[in-house]
Amino acid sequence: MYHVVIGIDDEETHAHRCVEAVVNLPGDFDEKKVTLIHSFIDNPSGASATQVHSVREAGEMLEEHGIEYTVEESSGDPANAIVSVGDETDADLIVVGGRKRSPAGKALFGSVTQSVILGATRPVMVTGVED
Fold first, then answer.
1. Which residues span the domain enclosing 41?
2. Where in this chain does the record put each UspA domain (predicted)?
3. Contact of 96 with 122, CB cutoff 8 Å
4. 3-state secondary structure the chain
5. pLDDT for position 102
6. Are 118 and 27 contacting, i.e. CB atoms less than 8 angstroms apart?
């Protein structure tokens, strides 16, 4: 079983691209297992990750392909949560969505994707964005 952790933010486009990347990995769908992780930065209403539209969309796409998945949630720093879930589940791969950002934008606002790449002890796949 090939286990993939996908970091899911609020962007539906990122979720779709991440799931497409997993679907297109070599191997049969029943040989893949996915953990979707969504980290809440601010959650005053107490919502669960399964209530987040992008997480639901990712789950539905995985179900359409017969890929087993679970949903994890956390609060705080998304990069730390993604890396932690990857380590805790002994994932074979972490998948995150990328954004186009200037070097100054990364320095000022940080980058979850960059932090995952630098902090992970396992392979990380970054999906692109459309122009």
1. 2-127
2. 3-127
3. no
4. CEEEEEECCCCHHHHHHHHHHHHCCCCCHHHEEEEEEEEECCCCCCCCHHHCHHHHHHHHHHHHCCCEEEEEEEECCHHHHHHHHHHHCCCCEEEEECCCCCHHHHHHHCCHHHHHHHHCCCCEEEECCCC
5. 61
6. no
Task: Return d(Cα 24, Cα 78) in angstroms, integer.
Answer: 25
**Neighbouring-strand partners of residue 128:** none
Say which amino acid occupies 124.
V
Which residues in the chain land under pLDDT 70? 44-45, 100-110, 129-131
Total count of domains within the chain = 1
